[in-house]
Amino acid sequence: MKPADALSELSRFAREHPGEAATVERFRALLEDTPAPLSRSQFEPGHLTCSACVLGGDGEHVLLLHHAKLGRWLQPGGHVEEDDPGPLASAVREVREESGIVEALEPLAGLAGGAPVDVDIHTIPARGAEPDHLHYDLRYALAVRGTPALRRSGESTALRWVAAARLGELTREESVTRLVARARARMEVP
C-alpha cells in the first residue's frame, strides 16, 4: 500500500462527511508531510492503521474483541502491511487475522463509493521501547452472513458477537459507539 491509496479513500470520506474537515486535514498532513506514515515505527506523530466494524446477520450483532494490550473492547484492526493492496484490504486482513472469519466479508459502501465509514485519531500508550504515539485509523463497515464461528488470536483476551442494543454493557467509548452507529446506518439498520 502507498500513502496515495489512503489519500484517495480519505478524499471519498471527506466528501461524505464535510463536518470532519479538521480530522481529515490531520490525516492528510500525516500522509503527505511525514517520511513514513504507513510504518509502525514512525512514532512522531504516529502512523496509519485500518480497522473495521463487522456486522453479523441482519446488522443486529457487532464483532468486538477485548484488546490484550489496551484492555478495552474494540473493533478488529491494526497496522498496515507493505503488501496490502489498499486500506480496505488491510482492514479485511486484520479482521480475518484477529477473528478467524473465513466467510465473505462484504464492504458497505457509502454515497461516495467504498469510502471508510469513520476516521479516528487516538493515543496508544507507551509500551516497552515504543513511546506513546497516535494511530490514524481508517475505519470500514463490513457485513457477513449470519454470525460465524470465531477464533481468537493472541492479540485479544476475548472475542464475541455482541448485540448492538447491548453495546453499552461492554463499552461507552465514543469512538467505538460512533463507528457502530455509522456502520449500522450504512446497512440501514435503525
Q: How would you describe this protein?
A:
The chain is an alpha+beta fold. The chain has one domain (3-186): Alpha-Beta Complex (Nucleoside Triphosphate Pyrophosphohydrolase). 28% of the residues lie in helices and 27% in strands. Strands 1, 2, 3, 4, 5, 6, 7 and 8 form an eight-stranded mixed sheet that branches. Helix 1 packs antiparallel against helix 2 (21-33). The longest helix has 14 residues, at 3-16. The chain starts with a helix and ends with a helix.
Features:
single chain; 190 residues; alpha+beta; Nucleoside Triphosphate Pyrophosphohydrolase; eight-stranded mixed sheet; 4 helices
Topology:
Blueprint: H1 3-16, H2 21-33, E1 46-56, E2 61-67, E3 73-74, E4 77-79, H3 87-99, E5 106-107, E6 118-124, E7 133-144, E8 156-163, H4 174-186
Number of helices: 4
Q: What summary fits the major beta sheet?
A: 8 strands, mixed
- Shape, per Cα inertia axes: globular
Number of strand segments? 8
Name of the CATH class: Alpha Beta
Distance, first to last CA? 35 Å
Listing every helix as H and every strand as E from the N terminus to the C terminus, the arrangement reads HHEEEEHEEEEH
Query: What oligomeric state do the depicted chains represent?
Result: single chain
CATH homologous superfamily classification: Nucleoside Triphosphate Pyrophosphohydrolase
Radius of gyration: 16 Å
| Model regions low in confidence, pLDDT < 50 over at least 5 residues | none
CATH topology: Nucleoside Triphosphate Pyrophosphohydrolase
Helix percent reads 25-40%
Mean pLDDT over the residues: 93
Range of strand content: 25-35%
Structural class: alpha+beta
CATH architecture: Alpha-Beta Complex
The domain count comes to 1
